[in-house]
Amino acid sequence: MRSTRAPRYARHRFPAEVISHAVWLYFRFPLSLRMVEEMLAARGILVSHETVRQWALKFGQSFANQIRRRLLASCDKWHLDEVVISISGKKHWLWRAVDQHGAVLDILVQSRRNAKAAKRLLRKLLKKQGAVPRVMITDKLASYGIAKRQLMPGVEHRQHRDLNNRAENSHQPTRRRERIMKRFKSAGQAQRFFSVHDQVANFFRRPANTSAAGHRMSRGQAFRVWAEVSGVLMGR
């Protein structure tokens, strides 16, 4: 494997290719740190799971931020939903917004499920998206309506359980990761993890009604961009 020394990897014993691949494995698939350690060991790369954890903390958010800037602007329909997660024995809520194609727009871990929490999510979305949607779709939680009236009074709001399947389906990877990680240790840990995880998932997911050839082409492009954002192409 050819060594690459981008500035961000200075003083790291392993080359960019190894670090990038380990971070990609951890955030792309429902793998524990020890599973990633073992997969690397199968290729003759001896690194501890704690080192993989440090790589994920140091590089994951930077990679996710660059991916976010490369993704197309969100569409005009937002699906919002929340799911309960247990952190240190206490109930928290993971609020998530996705567009009509299933791409995650943003997430927010909060200890409350009320109008104040819904407003925090909407403010974060409006700041990052830079525009209001045409339609907002939620379940029948009244907090969404209160927040929408205060922050986006002109937006159409549809409330129906069956209409929000797209947002509810996006919670399924959350449940898988929660089991693999044996629950989250803190709200900050969950926020940091999903801020990276959902952006990586957006980038490599297969959209509906895509042919096999189209999927291979888009996946190849995603791998090329991942190499760029992780700095593996530098020095070649």
From TrEMBL:
One of its GO terms (molecular function) is DNA binding. The keyword DNA-binding applies. Coiled coil: none annotated. InterPro entries: DDE_dom, IS_Transposase, Transpos_IS6. The keyword DNA-binding applies. One of its GO terms (biological process) is DNA recombination. This is IS6 family transposase. It comes from Microvirga aerilata. Residues 77-205 form the DDE domain. The lineage of its organism: Bacteria, Pseudomonadati, Pseudomonadota, Alphaproteobacteria, Hyphomicrobiales. Keywords: DNA recombination, DNA-binding, Transposition. Pfam families: DDE_Tnp_IS240.
